[in-house]
Amino acid sequence: MDLVLNAADYYFFTPYIYPASWPEDNIFRQTISLLIVTNLGAYILYFFFATLSYYFVYDHALMKHPQFLKNQVYREIIFTVQSLPWISIPTVSLFLLELRGYSKLYDDVGEFPSGWFRLIVSVLSFLFFTDMLIYWIHRGLHHRLVYKRIHKPHHLWKIPTPFASHAFHPVDGFLQSLPYHIYPFIFPLHKVVYLSLYILVNIWTISIHDGDFRVPQILRPFINGSAHHTDHHMFFDYNYGQYFTLWDRIGGSFKNPSSFEGKGPLSYVKKMTEEKHNQHAENGCKKEKLFSGDFTKTE
């Protein structure tokens, strides 16, 4: 996060906001700056990528599903806008620790090939480490003692849109993001890679709420995509994973997505639409027969 803050200080905070007497390494100044940068970045990421997904990926036929709520998109956005600032407070405390040198983040790749090999391994390690922790945190949030107060707000959206991706209770949102912040305090990670992965996992979070259930056949057994996560919203006790199906299979909570079996929400909407069409056609046919004299009154 120091890369972002240094750029923000150089181009904005130092010349335009803070007095010259307030040094850039002052902890109170850094806290304020991180709160501003974190919230601004979160809103930009959310609105930019969720909007793109909503208009260019999301299948709007899902909005005809009976479990799609009235004014749902508006409610998802309002919920997110209200939650993000609260999520940012504990997040900034961890960013501050990174900034003050308590993490294992580094900025020198090192010699080729060992430095690059280490970098690639760290990316794979980050994905599998965070996927494991998120699975257990997410599953724990479904426990009856905490679900109603913390995680239930995210399950209001049975048929989610991309705008539901960050519509969490603040405690829920922070807990599920915690593995991303824990990793660089335990394992070495390049600063640019960390920042890139942090952006990508937020985009991924949007993507598993985008209603696009198409997954290459070869990846279906391994990747936890939108089809899996939509079933999680609908059926509650399945598919807790973030990127992969591994921990759901280990934990016995894997469910083959209903969309892959022709029983998903889009299939339901299609069937419902066809039934209405057939019913209208049948009613139209009856009216036509009535006016043509085929139906006569009997005594």
Automatic annotation (TrEMBL):
Residues 124-252 form the Fatty acid hydroxylase domain. InterPro entries: Fatty_acid_hydroxylase, Sterol_Desaturase_Related. The chain crosses the membrane at residues 32-57, 77-96, 116-137. One of its GO terms (molecular function) is oxidoreductase activity. Keywords: Membrane, Transmembrane, Transmembrane helix. One of its GO terms (biological process) is lipid biosynthetic process. GO terms for cellular component: membrane. The keyword Transmembrane applies. It is found in: Membrane. Pfam families: FA_hydroxylase (PF04116). It comes from the Eukaryota. The keyword Acetylation does not apply. This is Fatty acid hydroxylase domain-containing protein. It comes from Gulo gulo.
